[in-house]
What does this fold into?
Amino acid sequence: MNIKKLIPNSNIRNWVGPFNDDEYYYDLGKSQAEKIIQWLSVKPEHKILDIGCGCGRIAIHFLNYLNEEGSYIGIDSNKELLSYCKDNITVLRRNFQFQYVDVYNRAYSPQGKINTQDFVFPIEDESMDIVILWSVFTHMYLTDIDSYLKEIHRVLKKGGLVLASLNLNNSFTKQQIETKKSHLDIKYFIADGLFSLDTDTPESGFAHDEDKVKELYWKYGFLIKEIKYGIWSSKELTGEFHDTIIAQKLTTKSCD
Ligand SMILES: C[S@@+](CC[C@H](N)C(=O)[O-])C[C@H]1O[C@@H](n2cnc3c(N)ncnc32)[C@H](O)[C@@H]1O
It folds into this structure.
């Protein structure tokens, strides 16, 4: 299947990143999907949940990878982005489903009626092998991440994996920001353990205290398998832009 035709116009794709260049949009999504497959050992028959799937930037690269047994479910709180996925991706493969969720996020869905902490994913218990959140926790408060991790724990099969990208604050990143060596200038104090790029719309980009984030994963019985540090915090590093946490559900019951 030729998936290059699934590059949305710039009005849509610029919602999910600085993507004026359509080739860059395509190539970055491709390389990130390849990393997801490699890092999480994704199999063609796996069931994937992509939370905050945007306009399917990553989803399209699974069209030629998942088989008929596998499935891809994307949910997003931005109606326009989600509609793009429904209208352009589901029509190609029925096992790629997308669902709009009416959740509030000041940066992406300010009309949203559901408070993030009250949101129950429209997904059955223990039905997913893989959950991904690429550049989504970076736009959420810690209390909201807490609720989402609880839900992720509910929907993942035992042994299932979750990959989430974040900007993790620790003594190294704070020092890099202070000495202007970071790519992102996340310097505004918002709350205990939370800094943002912007005070008017803090959801435009958060950095979360690394220890507080780890505690949330442990609270729900996730094993953090690996943290791949990204370059957001330092021009001296190489790798992905954000930090990436790969965690595994070990227990069947949430420790909440
Ligand atoms: C930076 S974009 C990333 C989109 C996609 N993951 C990608 O990498 O191209 C963040 C996405 O998260 C969605 N989002 C923000 N808060 C959300 C929430 N609480 N639940 C579901 N989606 C959310 C936004 O609408 C937006 O599409």
Summary: The first helix runs from residue 10 to 13. DSSP finds six helices and eleven strands in the chain.
